[in-house]
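Summary of Year 1 activities. Much of the first year was spent building the evaluation harness for sequence design. The harness presents a backbone, in tokenized form, and records the residue chosen at every position. We chose the following record to illustrate the format because it has been used consistently in internal testing since the harness was completed.
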């Protein structure tokens, strides 16, 4: 599944998160995994990343991109982050990233109904 989405403000985001090796980071809107891919580079072998997204197709993209045992990807909403973390037996995290928007991949997919320039029905749900 190829992606047309380009992650933005990656350097600025990583700088603000100030990630250190061994930390536990939550990407509450993991999308295609662009920011998470860069976060994993800084976490070292003991670090953990939890990626959450409502959109199962984005989780598939993220899994293909990350392909890393330190990353756990879960379908859900950042609003239920506590439940996701409890299910993974994680009681504390060091940082949380939320990118509140949608991606080019979702807009470009005619079946998703995110764009006004396609012939499909206007749907706009992240979780189909």
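For this record, the design step produced the sequence shown next.
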């Amino acid at each position: 599944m190829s992606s047309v989405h380009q992650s933005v403000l990656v350097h600025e985001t990583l700088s603000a998160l100030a990630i250190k090796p061994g930390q536990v980071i939550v990407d509450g809107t993991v999308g295609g995994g662009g920011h998470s891919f860069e976060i994993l580079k800084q976490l070292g072998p003991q670090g953990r990343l939890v990626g959450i997204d409502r959109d199962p197709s984005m989780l598939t993209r993220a899994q293909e991109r990350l392909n890393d045992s330190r990353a756990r990807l879960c379908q859900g909403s950042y609003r239920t982050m506590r439940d996701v973390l409890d299910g993974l037996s994680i009681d504390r995290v060091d940082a949380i990233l939320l990118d509140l928007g949608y991606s080019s991949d979702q807009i470009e997919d005619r079946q998703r109904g995110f764009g006004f320039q396609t012939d499909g029905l206007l749907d706009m749900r992240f979780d189909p």
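The longest strand covers residues 48-53. Quantitative recovery figures across the full test set are reported in Table 2.
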